[in-house]
Amino acid sequence: MKTLIKVISIGVVIAMTQSCSIFEQSTSPVNATTSVTKGSYMYGSEVSSFQPCGTEKELWVIGDETITGELHNDYMEMVEKPYEQVFVRFRGHQLEKANEGFAADYDGQFKVTEVVTMQKDDICQ
Prior knowledge:
Residues 33-125 form the NlpE C-terminal OB domain. The protein is an alpha+beta fold. The protein has two helices and five strands.
């Protein structure tokens, strides 16, 4: 019986280790430096996308719940309806492409640590 418990315990530890390594792969920074990046942002049902100025990449926006909650609220106060483009300056960094969920449909992810500015005027020109 003790042998069976040891085998099960080892199996649980291995499974937990593997699941952690999968999570780490999907959130590895492409560029580990946190800097201010400007671009366009759009939000709506199942959409939270950021396109840095001068790129064709569409990135899924992630961040702490407090930051993303404020981002979404500020966005909805600024626009007349969801899916309208606004221009932002985000402090954060780009992450690798997600493996699952809505984020997997994007070129990568952008982890926002601060919303520096948000406006309707184009700042990419």
